[in-house]
Amino acid sequence: MKITEHIQQAKDTLLSYEVLPPLKGKTITSLYDHLDPLMEFKPSWINVTYHRSESMFKKKMDGTFEKIEVRKRPGTVGICAAIMNHYKIDAVPHLICGGFTKRETEDALIDLNFLGIDNILALRGDAAKNEASFEPEKDGNFYAIDLLKQANSMNNGIYIDEDIRDGGKTNFCVGVAGYPEKHFEAPNLEIDLSHLKNKVDANAEFIMTQMFFDNQKFFEFANTCKEMRIAAPIIPGLKPITTKKQLTVLPRIFHVDIPTELSSAVMKCKTDAEVEIVGTEWLIQQSKELKAFGEPVLH
Q1: pTM summary value
Q2: Least crowded by CB within 10 Å, which of 26, 38, 227, 279?
Q3: For the chain, how are helix, strand and coil distributed in percent, rounded to 5?
Q4: pLDDT of 156-178, one tens digit each?
Q5: Which residues sit opposite 211 in a β-bridge?
Q6: What is the DSSP string of 26-40?
């Protein structure tokens, strides 16, 4: 079922989760062990992130180094299929521009379509660790809107090879990312929102936001989207703080602010177990406020 259909048919606020593929070498059981206790809350779908390959140098026996490509968390497409089979709920794979050519993206979309996966989240993705800024693959998509347009073309039966006539039409519901505190590369929120509007005007059907810890920033973001006639449903992304280390890691990696009240409470904790209690309570209060605000889903 499409995410838009889940939202349209909902009688109450929906819940969804997001998981990372297990590290290479671990089995799918490690993921099930994590998800099994959460199933009692009846999530409507589960997002599965995608992680690009990383270039590494491995020392050879003769003392020289060999450059190799390593993907530490493979299996996004297979995990989506496994989740749908195991739990009988929808899975939403993330697709990224980085590390994919357009032909590889097309093949991935064909696989997803064959598996009956109706939804994707189209993202540009981060720069590779050895790159100062994002660089697309040769013949790859540069921006999320390019990936969105490619998926929409396949929905219309249009493939890369021009000799494909009357191609089979896919039926993907494509979502994009939103940033209540703006994307870190955007010069300001206004320009960032103009990019978001362009994606929605190009037929993005839902918006999933970056995590945030200050609901007021989300409310302002949602209201500005409404003023700009960005009509796609906005799904707020939430995460509980569980360790003191996250006070520095999350702002650095995800470019989000942590409210003084929350950071002060975390700093007073003596153990990460105490931090988890504080972070969980903050998340519960965020969720209650967002539900009262009328948000259709808590992700």
Answers
A1: 0.91
A2: 227
A3: 40, 15, 40
A4: 999 999 888 888 999 999 999 99
A5: 237
A6: --HHHHHHHHGGGGG
